[in-house]
Write a structure and sequence with these properties.
Its main location: membrane. With 230 residues, this protein is an all-alpha fold. The protein is 75% helix and 0% strand.
Length: 230
């Protein structure tokens, strides 16, 4: 029983590792918007599986649902950051990216509060609590089709300059956005001369070693600072 509890908790992280590992390939091939839509479908399926696990008397459904939630979360973290940043005007890009962390923290807080026994953590309502992760995915899958694809993706990966201009006008309104398009073209030219590193190559690269040390130390200390207990 202890092993099953441990597996139920940790399998989310295993799924997250797999999801984040495949995010770069999927975004380049299919685009941020399509990946986000498919990712929301995955989360809704995972929420449904966990929500019906009690009625089906199957703890295996919880394991499967948690794993699928992990894959979805692993995909969502880089996807959401990239999409939110790329569809935002330059002056609001930093603010848009910072909201991601704020909403993740808010979501964790709401989840922990909802999980109290006085609310949805009771013996009769916990399947509803586990299925509640599908609600944000449902909201996004309804609203996201009204948003355009990321302008940098359209221009840099698809070479669709007209589509890029149309997406920019839809997002930022009418006006002269040639400076923003020129910036994307400069970034595309820079990327042609830049080698994309794998994870192992990044760890072996001397030029990025100190940045990597800083990220690992910061991430580790956040986990050790007692934030979960708080």
């Amino acid at each position: 029983l202890l092993f099953l509890w441990s597996l139920t908790v940790s399998i989310f992280g295993i799924g997250g590792l797999l999801g984040s590992s495949g995010s770069r390939y999927l975004t380049v091939k299919y685009g941020k918007k399509k990946c986000l839509l498919c990712n929301n479908l995955l989360m809704i399926v995972a929420a449904s599986i966990m929500g019906f696990s009690k009625a089906a008397r199957s703890f295996e459904m919880i394991l499967i649902g948690r794993f699928m939630c992990g894959v979805s979360a692993g995909l969502c973290v880089p996807l959401h950051h990239q999409y939110a940043g790329e569809i935002s005007p330059r002056k609001l890009r930093g603010f848009a990216n910072s909201t991601c962390s704020c909403f993740w923290t808010l979501g964790k807080a709401i989840g922990q509060i909802s999980g109290q026994r006085e609310l949805l953590g009771s013996q009769s309502l916990w399947p509803l609590l586990m299925a509640s992760c599908g609600l944000p995915a449902l909201v996004q899958i309804v609203t996201l089709p009204f948003f355009p694809e990321s302008p940098p993706y359209l221009l840099m990966h698809k070479g669709d300059q007209e589509g890029c201009k149309k997406a920019i006008r839809q997002l930022w309104g009418e006006g002269n956005h040639q400076a923003d398009i020129d910036d994307i073209m400069k970034e595309k030219a820079t990327m042609k001369n830049t080698k994309i590193l794998s994870v192992l190559e990044l760890m072996r690269e001397p030029a990025t070693r100190w940045q990597l040390y800083m990220i690992v130390i910061l991430t580790t200390t956040v986990q050790l600072c007692g934030i979960n207990a708080v």
